[in-house]
Amino acid sequence: MERIKLKGGSLAGTYHCIDKGFSFIRKQVSLTENREFGFYRWFSQLKKLQRLGRMFPELFPKVIGIGLEGGMSYFDLEFIENSVTVHEFLTKNPSPKDVERLFSELVRTMDILHSVKMPSFVGGFELYIDQEVSHALSFCMDEPAFRQFAEHKKIVFNGKEIPSLLHRIEEFQKLAAKHYVKPEECLTHGNITLENLLYVPSKNRIVFIDLYEENYIDTVWNDYSQIAQSSNSLYELYNKKTPIVKRNSVTAEVEYSPGLAAFNKLFQKFLQDKLTPDERVLTSLYEVSQFTRMLPFKKTIAKDKMILFYALASELFDQITKHD
Ligand SMILES: Nc1ncnc2c1ncn2[C@@H]1O[C@H](COP(=O)(O)OP(=O)(O)O)[C@@H](O)[C@H]1O
Ligand SMILES: [Mg+2]
C-alpha cells in the first residue's frame, strides 16, 4: 500500500493511501501518548462522522474502516476526488463570482446541519468560557516565556498597544453572561475552519471534514466563529509565520489575500443580516475563545505560536469592548 502523509506529527497523522489503485484517507493517532488532546479528540471525530454521516450522507466523507496498527488506532474515509480545502481555493484568488458561488453553497450546507435544534441552558456558556478561556490560559502559565508576556498589563501586537487579556477574564465572563440570553443548541461541525472544509469546484460541492465534539454547548455561533477564525482573523496565514517576540511585543505580518478578503466581506454581511446584536457579540466572544482554547495544543506542538495567538485574542477582545 502506498501512503502519502498529508498532515500531522508522530502522535497523529492524516494520510492519503492508495491500495491496488483504490484511494482513501487514513487518520491515525497514538493510543498511549497525550490521550486527552490526541486519542479522545480522534475518537470524538470518528463518532461524529459516523452519526452525522448517517443523517446527511452528502455532507460528510463516508467512514469505511476502523482498525489498529503499530500502537495506533485508525479510521479510513472515502477519498473526495478533485477536492481542495476552502482555504486553498480562496487563497488561489478565484474570481468574485466563484467566491460567491462557494459562499452560497457553504451557507446552504451549514443551514442543513444547524436546522436540527435542541434546547440548552445558560450555564453551558459559563462553563465553556471557564474551561476554554480561563482554564486554557491557566494551563499555559507554567510556560515561562508565555507567562512573562501575558502578565504585562499592556502588550503590543503588530505595533498596536492593547490590554493583555489575562487581566480581563472577569470582564469576559460578564460580557458573555450579558449577551448569552437565548440558549439554544443545534447540530454543529465543531471545528469548521476553512481548512476543514473540502470544496469540489467542478461540482460546487462542500464536504465537512475534521469535526470535533468538544464544544460543551453546540451553538451556531461557535461554528460561525470558527469560519471567522480563518476569514476574519486569518488563522491559517498567521499559523505559517514565525513571530518575532521582544519583551511585551509580538510581530508577524501576513500577506493580503483578495480571495479570503472577498469571502470575509460576504461572511460579515451574512452575520450582520442573520444575527441579533446579542448574537453578534457572542460570535465575536467565541472568536476570541478559539484562540485561547488552542493555546494548550500549541503548548504541546508549537510553543512559538502561543504568544502570537494570545496577542491576537487580546486584540479581538479589545475590539469587542470598544464597541459594546
Ligand atoms: N475525505 C477526504 N478526501 C480528500 N482529502 C482529504 C479527506 N480528508 C482529509 N483530506 C485532506 O487531508 C487534509 C487533512 O485532513 P484533516 O481531517 O483536516 O486532518 P488534520 O486533523 O490533520 O487537520 C485536508 O486538508 C485535506 O487536504
Ligand atoms: Mg484539519
Describe the structure.
The chain has 324 residues and is of the alpha+beta class. It has 2 domains: 2-78, 2-Layer Sandwich (Phosphorylase Kinase, domain 1); 85-323, Aminoglycoside phosphotransferase (APH), C-terminal lobe (Aminoglycoside 3'-phosphotransferase, Chain: A, domain 2), CATH 3.90.1200. It is built from 12 helices and 14 strands. The strands form 4 sheets. It has a 5-stranded antiparallel beta sheet with strand order 1-2-3-5-4, with helices on one face. A hairpin with a 3-residue loop joins strand 1 and strand 2 (12-19). Helix 3 (96-114) crosses helix 9 and helix 6 runs antiparallel to helix 10. It starts with a strand and ends with a helix. The model has no long low-confidence stretch (mean pLDDT 96). Magnesium ion is lined by residues 195-196, 210.
Strand order of the largest sheet: 1-2-3-5-4
Could you give a short account of the major beta sheet?
A: 5 strands, antiparallel
Number of helices: 12
The rounded distance between the terminal residues' Cα atoms is 56 Å
Q: What is the arithmetic mean of pLDDT?
A: 96
Percentage of residues in strands: 15-25%
The structural class is alpha+beta
Query: What is the top-level CATH class of the largest domain?
Result: Alpha Beta
Associated small molecules: adenosine-5'-diphosphate, magnesium ion
Q: Determine the CATH superfamily of the largest domain.
A: Aminoglycoside phosphotransferase (APH), C-terminal lobe
Question: Can you give the helix content as a percent range?
Answer: 40-55%
Number of strands: 14
Shape: globular
Low-confidence stretches: none
Which architecture of the largest domain would the CATH scheme give at its second level? Alpha-Beta Complex
CATH topology call of the largest domain: Aminoglycoside 3'-phosphotransferase, Chain: A, domain 2
Count of spatially separate domains: 2
Order of helices and strands: EEEHEEEHHEHHEEHEEEHHEEHHHH
Radius of gyration, in Å, reads 20 Å
